[in-house]
Amino acid sequence: MNWTDPRLTWKSEKFQEIHLPIDDIWMPDVIAYNLLEAEDYLIKPLAVVYSNGFVLVIPSKKYVVRCTEDKDHLYTCTITFGSWTYSNKDIDLVLSSDQLDLDLYENKDFEIVDSDVVRTEKKYSCCPELYISLKYTIQLRRKV
Description:
The protein is an all-beta fold. 0% of the residues lie in helices and 49% in strands. Strand 5 and strand 6 form a beta hairpin.
């Protein structure tokens, strides 16, 4: 996850980036909407903050989601992320790719068949603004 925070800029020839605890900076309230269970951070991440205000955070969390199985024994698992309070006027969730980066995925029981991510904008009855979410889908098949 990355964003630019103009309050975190500086001019220095010596230091172009710093690493800060995420509790010490503002972070968008992007959460997973449809979890069955979530663990706290496996490792509490540090934010990498660059002198131009660009912030990079790579959280390490374990999420448990509900998956459905079809007649071909293909499991489809989805997880949807979005801001809990910020509309599209404040936060614009942007896809860096329409595919998930699963190069580090290893599982002795399942293989990944397909994956995708879809960005949606939704208007709720409470509010005039649009709210953005990202829905990630992974399809798995049990290894034989």
